Each structure stands twice: as C-alpha cells, then as structure tokens.
Amino acid sequence: MVCSDKWVVQLVVDQCALHGITHWVFSPGSRNAPFALSIDNHPEMEATVIVDERSAAFYALGLAEKTQKPVVLCCTSGSAPANYLPAITEAFYRNIPLLVVSADRPKAWTDQGDGQTIRQGHLFHGFVHSTVHLEDAISNDENAWMYQRETALLFSQLLEGGPAHINVGLSEPLYHSSEKTREFGRKILSFKNQNPSIETISHLTRVIREKKIMVLCGQMHPNPSLLDALVTFSQSANVAVLTENTANLPHERFNACIDRTLNAIEKESESEYYPEVLITLGGAVVSKRIKAFLRKAPLVAHIKVGNEFPSMDTYQQLSHSVECNPVAFFDALNQQDLGLATHNFMGLWKTLDYRAKDRVFQFNPGSILSDFMVYQTLFNGLNEALILHMANSSVIRYCQLFDPLPSTEYYSNRGASGIDGCTSTAIGFASKDDRKNLLISGELSCLYDSNALQLATHSNLKVLVINNQGGGIFRIIDGANTSPQRLTYLEASHQKNLSFAASLGWHYTAIKESKNLEHAIATLLASPQAAILEVFTDANHSPSTLKEFYTFVA
Ligand SMILES: Cc1ncc(C[n+]2csc(CCOP(=O)(O)OP(=O)(O)O)c2C)c(N)n1
After folding, report:
1. Is 421 in the pocket of ligand 1 (CB under 6 A)?
2. In whole angstroms, what is the distance from residue 504 CA to residue 392 CA?
3. What is the pLDDT of residue 442?
C-alpha cells in the first residue's frame, strides 16, 4: 500500500484503522497533504472534503452523532484549526467523539516568523479530554513507543466519547510517498470500575485462558485480603507470582527475590521463563533486571491492575489497564474457569528460587567487613517482628537478596527514589508506630538528611548505618564502577561519620571489625532507647563480595 513517507502520519492513520475509525472530514492545505496521500490510498478510509474548517467541524459533529462513531477532522496549520473551536466546544459538552488531527510546523518553528504558524499545540485546552503532539523529525524505537502509547491511550478514551486532539509537527518535503513497510497501530484497552464488570472479567478470562502467567507485585502497603486472593490465584500451575519485599505480600508460593532468581537463568534459556501474560499491581518495582527481562519477552498481554498510574507502560507492552481494586479483580478471576493447569510455570520459577534460597546463608563472605556481610548477619539473626525502613541507594537492592520475613513490614521512598528524606520519613512513621522500627541507611543518605536526627528521638527507632565512605552504589552499577570520575564525582568519597548523633540524644555506637558485627546488631535491636549503630565497611572489598555471592547462588 502506498502512503505518505512521514512515519507519524502513518502512525495516526494506522491507529484510526486499528480502532475502527474510518471517516475523515478533510480541509485542504499543504501542511496536511501527507494525510491526504495516506487516507486516499487506504482501502478502509473515506473522506469528505470541506474548505471552511468551521463548517467542516460542525458537519463532522452531525456525522459522528448519526453514526455513533468517532470522526476525524484534518486541517492545515495556522488559523485553520482555530476555526474548529466552536464545534469542539459543542462536542465537549455533549461527549461527541471528534478527533482533530491538525498539521503543524515542527515545534522548533513556533513563534519564529514562519508562515501559518501559531501556538496550536494546546488550542483546544479545556475542551478536549486529551492532546498529543507528534513530530516527524526524530524516528527511533523509543519515540515510536512513546507516540504509540500516547495515541493508543487517546484513542481508547476517544472511543468512550468526547473530543481529542493530535497535533502533528511535519517538516518539508510534504508530498513524498512510500510503500508501507511497518504497522504502527497499538491498542490499550482501559476498564474503570472498582469492582470489575462481568464483561471486563469475561474479556480478561479469554485473554488469560491456558496462558503462562506472571503476576508481578510492586510497592504496596500490607494488604491481607489481597494476599489471600493472590494465594488462591497462585494455586494454578500456570501462575508464577513475583514480589519484592516492598510489596508486603509474603508467601512461600511466591518468588520474593527477583534479582537472585534472574541471576540463575542462563541467557540461552531465558525464553523458557517468559510469561505469555503479565499481570502487574502496586507501585514501583526495584529490580532493574526484571524490567529488562520483561521488555524482551514477547507478551500476549500486559494487564495492569489498580488505581496507581493506570497508563504507565513500564514493560512497553501494556495492553489492558484495569482501574479497580486488585482484591476485587483477583476475587472475580478466582471464580472463573481459567484453564490454568496446562504449564508448570510456577514450578519452573520456584525451582530456581529454592535453589538460591538454600545457598544464601551458606555463602561465606570471608572475614573482611563488607556491605554484604552486614545484611547477611542482620537477616540471618532476625527472629522478631520489625518495621523495616530501607533507604535508597544500595540498601534497598541488598535487602532484595534476602527472603522477606513474614512478620516484617517493608517501607522505602521508591516513588522518586531520592536519598534526601529517608531518615525523616522513618522518624515520621515511627512517631506513630509503637512496634520496633529499624532504618537501614547508607551514610551519605543519613548525612544528607542529618537534620532529621534532631527532629525527635523515638525509643522504638533503631538506625543501622552502613558507612562505606561514599555512595557505594556507584561501585556496583555497571558503567559507573569503571568511570574515571567515580571516586570524586559519583561516590563523593569522604571520611565523615555520624558520631555527632550522640549530641542529639541518640545512643551512638560504631564498629569497624567483622568479629563485633553480630553482637553489635543484636545490641542495637535490643537497645531500650533511640539508637544508631554505624558499621564501617570496606568499600573496596564490598563490590567483589557481592559478585562472589551472585556466582555462588546461581
Ligand atoms: C536527592 C537525591 N540526590 C541524589 C541521588 C543520587 N544518588 C543515588 S544513591 C547515591 C549515593 C548514596 O550513598 P549512601 O547513602 O552512602 O548509600 P550507598 O550507595 O553507599 O549504599 C546518590 C548520590 C538521589 N537518589 N537522590
């Protein structure tokens, strides 16, 4: 099929075709000529040509009302789209689905004295439910993904009613054609109902049936009802549930240490572990490895469940956004016959988990005090319920290597992942929580937020500071670890400590030798007052110990 050589024009037309939108009311112009070329050659598209844009828009309004389908309005740049406004206001208040596709100069030319160029990007602001701006100049996979995602969401809303606007920055030449080689259409279905409707569940049942399913749980507040519903869902062999400790969903059927498990998968056999359907819930996921893994997996569907950021496309394959209470979602699915006994997908994932789990505490980190040794000693010895606050940087990542303790709740500032307020947040939390709260922090994060130490001293709060004399995270991130700027610019290597906390009312102790570690941690946890234990670790030795651990458990 012949079409315009402008890939963004192809994308808009493909999205129309995929969403069953075929009628265009076209007003002549030069900038929008690439659309004329594409729709004229498209077997499913039909066009009505009307010169006066004001009248064209009202004509489209009548057409959309009669056909009960969205109609596209396409015009050139400048005052042309401004003439759509009266009809768009009418459509807005009557929820009639008109899609304005306005051609524009590339953004760089706005307000630069070029002809027929006005500020048209947000011309219908307040009267459309969504606006997307596309530019044809840059073509790469990341931009294609962004535009497909943005337009897929716009089309999904358009089908629900009301007007929408796509402004398309096009550069010259405008009249070149090409043979169509790539399909840009992408659909994201969105469902909004706190208790998913029967139609939603029967649609999803068809999508899920007999598939290999991975449920990936991100950060959440503890939710026992969700845990129950998820445990029931995970009884099927086809279902592997992956959680992180911040999901606060501990259960022996789940894979709770994602990086540890992924580390054991051989490159050549990765595809065996790919799910066909991914269901995600909750907020941030810490593991970078699982993100890279799932972006490679050819998913049949990614179903995102819950109310937080319903259109977030972390794995670049979002197909269904179900805005609802996740408990209601799993309760409803648990009533269906999903045919989920066709693959031992859970067993596949769980075998790796069991293997690594057995080896975690067998690993001997040697006698030099490393970061890893601190976590291993802490988690090995913990036998009481805790509220665990994990500062950002390497702390949250090290904590993912150890199975979550069922009686422990896990918290971390993973919304924006800053090191700036981890201590203040833990103190605020502990001020209203009588249970034993433990904050684990790197020393830079703790020094950054040192004002927090004078806020209040709650006797239920203990702080374990791992002082590796800088941002130790930069020694374990690929790229950063070999950068010539690492020591000074990234790690900000230093010789400071937190002993000043003693003058602010904290019981402060410090250790530098591994032989004192176990006792020092036990003393910290048993301390009757607000206490800080600062453990000085060997910054050079820590990264190699972590590497050895990964090799040992693989
Ligand atoms: C507000 C803010 N500034 C900068 C960063 C970038 N950053 C991430 S980790 C880190 C170093 C943290 O060092 P430390 O607290 O000692 O922990 P470690 O890496 O040693 O575990 C920095 C500067 C950030 N996440 N947040």
Report:
1. no
2. 24
3. 98
